[in-house]
């Protein structure tokens, strides 16, 4: 009970900061479509064209384009400010999603779906923009910043939880394009509100002289882990939709995916209430690797209800993993490259989601809809292995330095 009260106080303290509630409301509204666009596109395209492989490939193309454009947009944000860059970029993304809707609605050739959805790459990294505001407001309070990062990850999971449910409800109740249309409206409205909060916006910075985060040995292993984690998300989403569809329960797919996000959201908020002495990424990745086996095993039972329970438990490892990774990114990235560094991690995540979406769709269509759940399990294991190799390499580089230092000290004493 005492820990719950302390956790509530920590989160209340965040929103007592001037302007925090207003920009949080805007970013939540703009972030909700992140959980809607992909599901809406997959359901809309698969329903119209009868192919999950095509739907997964189109979704993957949009995510891959976002991964390429994301760091470039973030660099512009660092240099010119959030409002000047994010709002025009949002307009481009909204027009792109509407173009996809029209292509599907009027049975345009398949290649037009890929061309139209590429413009979704202009969607700003709203989570990164929000985390940059917290980093600016709490730059001298690492404990409060940890709590803010946990809240942001929980917000990500909340939007991924509600987004698929809302998208599935709209596409199933009204018409197939309803989810995409609603997502476009919410994105634009949320970004208008978010960018209007100028008092909390980090100041633009001159062109950075710091090296690109891509050249940082400290960030590259984190990028690889985020990419593998993205495969977990992308493959799990498509595999779950295909599994539910095979049992005539497509409308329930969003609710089932929401349970995974619910588990992650709850775990993220609990993790934010803790005050860890340091990031523990290895433990988080190990937990994710173990828990992602559960949905694969549950799918083998053929029961959507059993799968839903497994996803709820498996999701509890994802938010702590992402919170820990983003905390490490903030520690290892120069202040004038912060948006770029965080966007690079999101780029890795989206690249992984794109690959996972394509791999999950291919496995569901060409192997089996149960085997498709092996893709996220394998990706989680890969993330753990990559981090383990990076840690071992880091230790091997540091040992000679320690030996040399001791040798010099001994020589001085002689």
TrEMBL record:
One Pfam family cited in the UniProt record for this chain: MFS_1
Transmembrane spans: 28-46, 52-73, 85-108, 178-197, 218-244, 250-274, 281-298, 304-329, 341-364, 370-390
UniProt entry tagged with the keyword Transmembrane: yes
Listed InterPro entries: MFS (IPR011701), MFS_trans_sf (IPR036259)
Keywords: Membrane, Transmembrane, Transmembrane helix
Name used for this protein in its record: MFS transporter
């Amino acid at each position: 009970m005492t820990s719950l009260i302390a956790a509530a106080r920590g989160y209340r303290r965040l929103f007592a900061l001037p302007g925090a509630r207003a920009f949080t409301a805007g970013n939540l509204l703009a972030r909700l479509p992140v959980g809607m666009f992909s599901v809406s596109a997959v359901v809309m395209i698969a329903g119209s064209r009868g192919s999950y492989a095509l739907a997964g490939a189109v979704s993957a193309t949009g995510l891959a384009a976002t991964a390429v454009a994301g760091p470039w947009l973030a660099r512009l944000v660092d240099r010119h400010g959030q409002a000047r860059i994010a709002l025009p970029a949002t307009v481009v993304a909204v027009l792109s999603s509407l173009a996809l809707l029209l292509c599907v609605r009027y049975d345009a050739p398949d290649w037009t779906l890929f061309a139209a959805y590429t413009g979704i790459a202009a969607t700003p990294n709203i989570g990164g923009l929000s985390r940059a505001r917290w980093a600016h407001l709490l730059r001298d309070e690492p404990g409060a910043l940890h709590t803010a990062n946990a809240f942001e990850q929980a917000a990500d999971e909340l939007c991924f939880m509600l987004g698929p449910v809302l998208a599935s409800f709209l596409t199933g109740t009204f018409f197939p394009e309803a989810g995409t249309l609603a997502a476009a409206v919410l994105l634009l409205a949320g970004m208008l509100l978010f960018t209007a909060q100028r008092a909390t916006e980090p100041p633009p910075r001159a062109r950075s002289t710091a090296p690109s985060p891509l050249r940082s040995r400290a960030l590259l292993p984190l990028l690889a882990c985020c990419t593998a984690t993205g495969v977990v998300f992308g493959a799990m989403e498509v595999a779950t939709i295909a599994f539910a569809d095979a049992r005539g329960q497509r409308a329930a797919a969003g609710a089932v995916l929401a349970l995974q996000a619910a588990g992650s959201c709850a775990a993220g908020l609990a993790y934010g209430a803790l005050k860890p002495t340091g990031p523990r990424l290895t433990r988080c990745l190990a937990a994710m690797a173990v828990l992602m086996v559960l949905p694969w095993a549950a799918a083998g039972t053929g029961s959507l209800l059993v799968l839903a329970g497994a996803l709820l438990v498996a999701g509890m490892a994802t938010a702590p993993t992402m919170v820990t990774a983003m905390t490490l990114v903030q520690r290892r990235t120069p202040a004038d490259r912060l948006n770029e560094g965080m966007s690079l991690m999101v780029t890795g995540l989206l690249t992984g989601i794109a690959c996972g979406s394509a791999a999950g769709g291919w496995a569901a269509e060409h192997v089996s809809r149960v085997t498709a759940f092996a893709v996220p399990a394998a990706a989680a294991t890969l993330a753990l292995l990559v981090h383990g190799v990076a840690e071992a390499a880091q230790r091997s580089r540091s040992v000679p330095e320690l030996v040399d230092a001791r040798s010099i000290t001994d020589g001085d004493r002689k």
